[in-house]
Amino acid sequence: MNDTHPSQEEQLSKVKAQLKELLISQLALEDITPEEIKDDEPIFGEGLGLDSLDAVEIVVLLQRNFGVTMKETEKGNEIFRSINTLAAFIVENSSKQTGLPGETTAPADKMP
Amino acid sequence: MKPTCIQGIGIVAACGRGVNALRSALHRGWQPPVSVTVPGGLELPVYALPPGTLDDKSLGRKVRRADRLTKIAVFAAADALADAQLPADLERQRVGVIVASALGTHKTTFQFLDEILTFGEAGVSPTVFSHSVQNAPAAYIASVLGLQGPVLTLTQVHFAFHHALILAACWLANGQCDHVLVGNMDESGTVMHAICRSLLTLAPDGKIRPFAFAANSAGIPGEGSAFLLLSSTAAPGAYGTVRHVEMGSWIPPARPPDLHFLEADGMIPDESGYAIPAGTGLRLAGYAPLFGSMTGGSAIGCAVAALSLKEQTRFASPVPDSAPELSICRETEAGLVQSILLTRLNCTGATARIHLNKD
Amino acid sequence: MVDRLSLVTIPGMGAVSAAGLDTGATLASFRAELRHPGKLTLFESPIDCPVFEAVGFQAAQPYADGVRTIELAIHALQEALAEARLDAGALGSMRVGICLGTTVASQLNDLEFYRRFKETGTASLPPVRRYLKGNLADAVAAHLGIQALTLTVTNACSSGADAIAIGAQWMEAGLCEIVIAGGADELSRIPYSGFNALGLACKFPCTPFDRNRQGLNLGEGAGILILESPASANARGFSPRLVLQGYGSACDAHHLTAPHPDGIGLKSALSRVLSHARIPPGEVAFVNAHGTGTVDNDLIEGNALAAIFGSKMSILSTKGFTGHTLGAAGGLEAVFTGLGLREGWLPPSIGFQEQDERIPVTPLRVRTEVTGRFAVSTSLAFGGNNTALLFGLNL
How far apart are alpha carbons B34 and B47 in whole angstroms? Predict the structure, then answer.
C-alpha cells in the first residue's frame, strides 16, 4: 500500500497544471501563460477562445497524456466547459482506467 | 487570354521576405546555399528560407496551428495583397485565390503518416490531418485575409502556376472576380531532402547554371512562395501586365521581348532543350541560382520580372556562365524594359511560357 | 452577353461507384432504392466505420502501376467517350483539355514508403517515381495517347465540381473544344483515419439530412463528363440535349474544418451560378445537395438551400448511395444530376427518415418525377470553398 498516495485535491491540482501546459503547447496558444488560464473560465467560444478543431484535438490529447478515452456521447458536452470540468473528468476516469493520473499509456500498437 | 494587371507582389524564399528583400538579393548576386544533414549523415545543400523569416507574430492566433508551408504561403499572399494597396472598401467577395504547388502539403502528409505509425489509425491528430489536406494553405489565405470569392488549389509537378495564371485571367475576364491572388508554394523538408539527395544531381560548387543546357543537369533544391495580385483593370503604380500564357512546343515569340528569362534550374534531368529557346538571339537572364530548383519556381520568376518592369531595371544573372555566343544580362542596368518572356521546360520537353509587359 | 446555354454541351457521361459500375447499373440501384455500404475490405484498419466500395470493380488493364484512382477515372471515361461516340483517334485531331479533381492521387502518401524512411532514413525511390508519374490528368492523356491541356485540381471535396467549371472556362476562353472533366478518388486510410479523428465519421450507414445523422461514410469512384462546344458537336452530327448552363464558386473564409454557420459561401455560390446561368431559382427543378450526413454540413446546407430556393425545393443527397467520394464527389454528382434531368426522375434521398426541425427543407422521401429543365449540384469543400453547377436539358 502506497502511503503517499495523493489526495483527490492534489490529483486535481496536478492535472490542472498539466492540462494548462498541454493546451498551450499542443494547441499552439503561444500568446498566453499557464497562470493566465483561469480554472473556471470557459475554454470554448469566449474565455480561452478555443474552437471545434481544438475540441477534437483535446480528445486525442486526453488519450495520449492521461490515458483517458471519451465515449461518443461524452464528446462536446459539459466536460469541455472549463479546466475544472476537464480535470475532474480526467481524475474520475483515470482512477477507473489506469490508477494514478498523469501516467501515459504506451502508444497503441495498432499498425495494420 | 485577356491581359491581367499585376498590382502587387509578395515573396517568401531564400532571399527572405518581401519586395525589398527580393531586390537586395537580386543586387547582391549569388550566395551559397545552406547545408542540411540528411538521414544517413550525408549533407544536402538547400536554398532554404533564412532563419527567422517566419517569425512574424502580427497575424497572431489566426495562424497559430498553421504548419510551415501554410505560413510561407499566407505571408507571401498577404504581402501581395498589401503591396497592391487596394482601396479600403474592397469588396472581398470579388477577390479570388488560386494556389499552385508542385509537391503540395507533402511534409504534413508525412507527419500524418508518422502519427499513424506512432499512435495507430484510431489515435491520430485531427489537426495534423486537417493541415495535410492539399487546399489547407489556400483555406488559411482566404480566412486570414477575409477573401470570399472562389478559392482553388492546383497541385501538379509541372506548370501548376501557369495554369493558375490562365484561370485567373478567365475569372477576371468573365467577371467572377475583380482581383485574384495567384501564387505558388513549395517547401523542402526531411523526407524531400532524402529524395533530392537520391534523385537530384547536385551542383558540386553550389551553383545552378541556367545556361549550361546540360543533358544531365545539376540543381540545388529550393523552397518558398511568391504571389501576384492580379486585377482586371490597370492601376497607377502597377508592376505590369501578364499578357499571355501558353503551353506546348516552343514557338518563337512574334515580337522579341526585351529580356528572356530561362527558367532552367537543374530540376528536370535533361535541360538540353533550353538551347532552342536560348538560340533565338534574345537577351537572356536566369535567376534560379538565387532561389534554388523548384518546378513551381515560375511564380518567383514572375515576381522578379514584375520588379524589373516596374523599376525599369535588368537585374544581373547571378551565374552567367555560358557559351560566348549567348547574350546574357551580366550586369544590373537601368534602361527600357517593355516586355519579358519566361520560358520553362518540363521533363517531356514541353514548354510553358509567360509573356509580361510593362503595360 | 453570350447566351450561356450555347457554350458547353455534354455529349457523354460516365460513372463508377458503390451505386454501380456504370450509369446503367447506377440507375438500377436508384430505381431499386438499394444501397451497399459495407465493411472495409480494400485495406486493413482498426477503425470500423462502413464504407462504400465499388464492389466488383476491376480495371480492364492495370494502369500506372495499378493506381486505383487512375483506373477508376479511366473506367468512367470509357463509358463517357462511348456515349459521346468519341475515341482516342477522334480526340487526337481536336483541341482537348483534361481537368480532373482528386484528393488521394495527388499525394505522396504511401505508408510503407514512409515506414521504411522512418526506420532506415532511406527514401525508397519506386514509390516516389510512381507518384511523380501519377498525375491523374496526365495519366488519362497518356492512356488516350493524345496531347492535351492537362490539370489536376486538389480542392478537397469540391475538386470534381471545380474541375468541371474549369473545363467550361477553358472552352469559353477558346483554349479547347472538348474537355474531359470530373473527378476520381479511391478509398485511402488517410482520410479514413482523418475524418474519424475529426469526429465526422459515422459508425453506421450515413443518413444525410436525417434528424439523427451522425456523420459521413467514405466512398470511392469516378464521375466524368465530356464537355464539348456546340460547333464541335454539330460538326460530328451530334446535338447533345444536356448542357452545363452555369457555374459559381465562393469561399466561406471562416475556418479550416467547419463551414460558416450562416452558409454565406454556399449562398454566394448559388447566387453566382443562378446569375451566371441566367436562370431564376424558381426554374430549378431539383438540387443534388452535397449532403454528407454530418451534423454541420446538412444543417448549414439545408438552411442555405431553403434561403435561395424556398423550403419546397426538391433536394436529395446521393451520398446515401455512394458515400462521400471526396475528389470524385463533384464529378459523380454532376453525372447524377444530368441523369435526373435526362431520365426525368429522381430516387429518394436514401438514408433520410426523420425530419430535423432545424432544417427547413425536406429531402425526397420517395421516387419523384422531375418537372423542369434545370437542376443544380452543390459541393461544399473542406476548407470552405463552395461550388455550384447548373445543368440544363434542351427540349
Answer: 6
Mutation choice for A interface testing from B61, B67, B140 by most A CBs within 10 A:
B61
- Cβ neighbours, 10 Å, residue B117: 18
Model's pTM, two decimal places?
0.96
| All three cell numbers of B195 | 529524395
Q: How many CA atoms lie within 13 A of C57 on its CB side?
A: 31
The C-alpha cell at B216 is 544531365
Cell 517515381 belongs to which residue?
A: C129
Q: C322: closest CA among C37, C87, C33? A: C37
C-alpha B322/C-alpha C21 separation (Å) is: 57
Distance, CA of C327 to CA of C185 (rounded, Å): 6
Checking if the pLDDT of A1 tops 70, the result is: no
Contact C245, C218 (CB under 8 A): no
Q: Are B97 and B181 in contact, with CB atoms under 8 Å apart?
A: yes
Nearest CA-CA distance, residue A59 and chain C, Å: 9
ipTM above 0.95, yes or no: yes
**Among candidates A53, A59, A76 on the partner chain, residue whose Cβ is nearest the Cβ of C256:** A53
What CATH number belongs to A8-93? 1.10.1200.10
Please tell me the distance from the alpha carbon of residue B339 to that of residue B243, in angstroms, as a whole number.
9
Are residues C243 and C391 in contact, defined by beta-carbon separation less than 8 angstroms?
Answer: yes
User: Is the confidence at residue A109, as pLDDT, over 50?
Assistant: no
Q: Is the dihedral of CA A66, A68, A74, A75 positive or negative?
A: positive
d(Cα B14, Cα C370) in Å, to the nearest integer? Answer: 58
Per-residue pLDDT reduced to its tens digit, B272-303 = 999 999 988 899 999 999 999 999 999 999 99
Which DSSP state fits B175?
A: T
Minimum CA–CA partner of C115 in chain A:
A111
The CA distance from A14 to the nearest CA of chain B, in Å, is 24
Tell me the C-alpha distance between B32 and C92, whole Å: 47
Beta partners for residue C152, in sequence order: C100
- Per residue in B22-42, pLDDT (tens digit) is 999 999 999 999 999 888 888
List C358's β-bridge partners, or say none.
none
> Which range among A57-66, C65-74, C229-238 shows the weakest confidence by mean pLDDT?
C65-74
Chain A interface with B: residues with Cβ < 8 Å:
27-31, 49, 53, 56-57, 60, 63-64, 107-112
Closest to B120 (Cβ–Cβ): which among A49, A57, A111? A111
Is A53 in contact with C199 (Cβ distance < 8 A)?
A: no
Bridge-based pairing state of the strands B16-17 and B34-37: unpaired
B168 interface with C at CB cutoff 8 Å:
no
pLDDT at A97: 52
DSSP state of B328: B
Q: Which amino acid is at A31?
A: D
Comparing C-alpha atoms, which of C110, C16, C100 is closest to residue C58? Answer: C16
Half-sphere exposure of residue C138: CA atoms within 13 angstroms, side-chain side: 19
Cell 455534354 belongs to which residue?
C10
What are the start-end ranges of the E strands in C123-274?
149-153, 178-185, 218-219, 221-228, 242-251
- State the average pLDDT for chain C: 95
pLDDT above 70: residue A101: no
Question: Under DSSP, is residue B235 helix (H, G, I), strand (E, B) or coil?
Answer: coil
Distance in Å, alpha carbon of C49 to nearest chain A alpha carbon? 14
How far is residue B235's CA from residue B238's CA, in Å, rounded to a whole number?
6
Q: Using an 8 Å CB-CB cutoff, list chain B residues near C108.
A: 103, 106, 109-110
* Number of Cβ within a 10 Å radius of residue B90: 15
B109 vs C contacts (CB less than 8 Å): 107-109, 190
Backbone angles phi, psi at B26, to 5 degrees: -65, -35
Decide if pLDDT at C359 tops 80: yes
Mean pLDDT for the stretch of residues C172-187: 96
C241 touches chain A (CB under 8 A): no
